[in-house]
């Protein structure tokens, strides 16, 4: 973070004092993300928000809410509640009008705390805004065939604000102790990492008689500024997602936080994002000499989204993974050139991925979307019998549909999605150049060599009641011991078994079926009492890899948004 502070005098010299700051972003998986998504589908309003690029900014959330309220007739009570939630949750970017006032609490605690429903403590002056909120996530429940309880114990603090109308910041930290269900423990054993987390250690609890828990911290922080009318810069640690799906084949938040430098350029109907990431090719749990730094690798990525109309958009994605013994490849700092050209000029040592996506909203009810990712591709290998199943045809694709207010039932939303990724995709001849971070994927949690169907139903019958059900069916091919059949990008693909005859799902075939049922009641703004029920069954051709999971948890959650571990 201190590196960015050094830049501030330079940015001031560029005239930042005359600019209005861009805002902090809404955490991924927060309710506002889905609210904004369904508003874009139902209204087709022309706004600056490009839903493919997440997380959304808080300023955009307010703009969309006000535009929808002023331009749309006959909004349902639940939709009006959504708009009010968005305004409450992002009230530092809301200039009240006669028809809309910032909601205030009738009796603030000690006259200082909870002066508005969304924030424990806030400061509002012409030159400075500050929001401070607690974070809490406590869940506990039994797992079938296991005497130990599953539990999650997270406590933390979230702070965000902006200064002088030109610089904004965000930070949160969650101290976590957890005992996971058996399939997550198997992941940790196989990959020596905790999904979605970084450094971890074993945790034992005498209270719950747990001797196989984990202790780790989650931290997310960045500082940003608007350097021109249309260009915004951020530096920090965080997560990103590109795409409209439940999954993303480009970049998602399923893995550990990354150190990033990000530029967002928004002009006309275009949103152009440049991302520069510093990553670790292994986790701290991987054996290495004591007191040594983890090796580093880097990603230079850009994504261009074009909204042809408010309901039709297309995007282009490109990313290059490279390691240079802790040295960044300066040629990849070029923000507009195609990285494949640079990679070829310096000897083709790196891992380049490209992708295309699209979205179409129609009838104010539906959205169809999709992605195509190409890691490497040879067209002739699809048609020549002698080249059929060439290992280097590494690609994946996604197709999905969303149906909001399904069957004319307000806030009943259905999403269906299909994903498939060929063997060896995301891998490189150099294992350090795989499209991974901290022994975790950067895109899909099933890594590669799979076919997957996902179905999600969300229903909100009352402003404070939320129900969701999700179903996952996946066919995967796992690597046999000491063989590389393309399921694990952490392995260099030069260790592949065959050059030809490769098919998706090869190796030790397995079928995964997962059903998750969630219900929650909102007691206060972003404070929920909830229950989660999960069934997961893995049937493998190798019976020793079969695994059944069933658990039920009850919990309370406040300002914490975790992704479900659906894999």
Describe this structure in words.
There is one protein chain. A hairpin with a 3-residue loop joins strand 4 and strand 5. The chain is mainly β and 567 residues long. Residues 1-21 have low confidence and may be disordered. The protein has a single domain, classed as Porin (Beta Barrel). 41% of the residues are buried. Helix content is 12%, strand content 44%. The strands form three sheets. The chain has an 18-stranded antiparallel beta barrel. The chain has a two-stranded antiparallel sheet with strand order 1-9. The protein has a two-stranded antiparallel sheet with strand order 18-19. The protein contains six helices and 24 strands. Helix 3 (58-71) packs antiparallel against helix 4 (77-89).
Write a brief caption for the model.
This protein is mostly beta strands and 567 residues long. It has helices at 2-13, 31-43, 58-71, 77-89, 182-191, 339-345; strands spanning 53-54, 121-125, 128-143, 146-163, 167-179, 200-205, 210-226, 231-238, 241-242, 258-267, 270-279, 297-309, 312-322, 351-362, 366-376, 394-403, 412-421, 436-437, 440-441, 450-462, 465-478, 508-524, 527-540, 547-558.
């Amino acid at each position: 973070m201190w590196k960015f502070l050094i830049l501030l005098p330079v940015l001031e010299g560029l005239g930042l004092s005359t600019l209005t700051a861009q805002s902090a972003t809404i955490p991924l998986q927060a309710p506002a993300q889905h609210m904004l998504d369904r508003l874009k589908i139902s209204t087709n309003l022309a706004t600056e928000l490009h839903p493919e690029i997440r997380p959304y900014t808080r300023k955009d959330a307010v703009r969309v809410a006000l535009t929808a309220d002023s331009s749309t007739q006959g909004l349902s009570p639940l939709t009006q509640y959504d708009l009010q939630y968005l305004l409450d949750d992002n009230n530092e970017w809301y200039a009240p009008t006669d028809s809309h006032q910032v909601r205030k609490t009738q009796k603030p605690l000690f006259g200082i705390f909870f002066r508005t429903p969304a924030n424990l403590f806030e400061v509002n002056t012409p030159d400075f805004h500050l929001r401070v909120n607690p974070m809490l996530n406590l869940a506990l429940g039994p797992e079938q065939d296991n005497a130990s309880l599953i539990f999650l114990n997270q406590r933390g603090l979230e702070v965000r604000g902006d200064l002088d109308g030109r610089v904004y910041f965000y930070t949160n930290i969650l101290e976590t102790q957890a005992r996971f269900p058996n399939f997550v423990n198997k992941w940790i054993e196989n990959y020596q990492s905790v999904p979605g987390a970084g450094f971890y250690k074993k945790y034992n609890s005498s209270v719950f008689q747990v001797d196989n828990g984990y202790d780790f911290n989650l931290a997310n922080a960045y500082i940003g500024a608007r350097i021109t009318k249309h260009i915004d810069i951020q530096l920090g640690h965080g997560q990103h997602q590109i795409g409209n799906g439940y999954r993303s084949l480009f970049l998602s938040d399923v893995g550990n936080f990354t150190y990033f430098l990000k530029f967002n350029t928004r002009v006309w109907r275009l949103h152009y994002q440049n991302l520069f990431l510093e990553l670790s090719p292994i986790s701290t749990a991987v054996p290495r000499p004591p007191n040594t730094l983890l090796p580093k690798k880097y990603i230079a990525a850009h994504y261009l989204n074009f909204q042809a109309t408010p309901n039709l958009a297309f995007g282009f994605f490109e990313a290059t993974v490279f390691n240079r013994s802790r040295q960044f490849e300066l040629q990849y700092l070029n923000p507009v050139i195609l990285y494949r050209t640079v990679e070829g000029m310096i000897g083709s040592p790196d891992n380049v991925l490209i992708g295309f996506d699209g979205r179409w909203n129609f009838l104010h009810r539906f959205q169809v979307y999709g992605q195509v990712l190409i890691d490497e591709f040879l067209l002739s290998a699809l048609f020549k019998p002698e080249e059929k199943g060439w290992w280097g045809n590494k690609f994946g694709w996604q197709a999905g549909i969303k149906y909001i207010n399904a069957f004319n039932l307000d806030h009943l939303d259905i999403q269906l999605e299909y994903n498939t990724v060929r063997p060896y995709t995301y891998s490189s001849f150099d294992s350090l150049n795989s499209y991974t971070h901290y022994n975790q994927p950067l895109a899909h949690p099933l890594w590669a060599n799979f076919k997957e169907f996902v179905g999600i139903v969300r229903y909100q019958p009352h402003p404070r009641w939320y129900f969701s059900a999700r179903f996952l069916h996946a066919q995967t091919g796992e690597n046999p011991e000491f063989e590389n059949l393309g399921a694990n990008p952490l392995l260099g693909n030069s260790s592949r078994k065959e050059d030809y005859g490769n098919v998706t799902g090869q190796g030790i075939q397995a079928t995964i079926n997962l059903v998750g049922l969630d219900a929650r009641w909102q007691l206060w703004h972003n404070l929920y009492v909830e229950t989660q029920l999960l069934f997961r069954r893995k049937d493998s051709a190798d019976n020793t890899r079969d695994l059944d999971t069933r658990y039920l948890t009850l919990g309370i959650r406040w300002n914490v948004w975790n992704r479900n571990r659906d894999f």
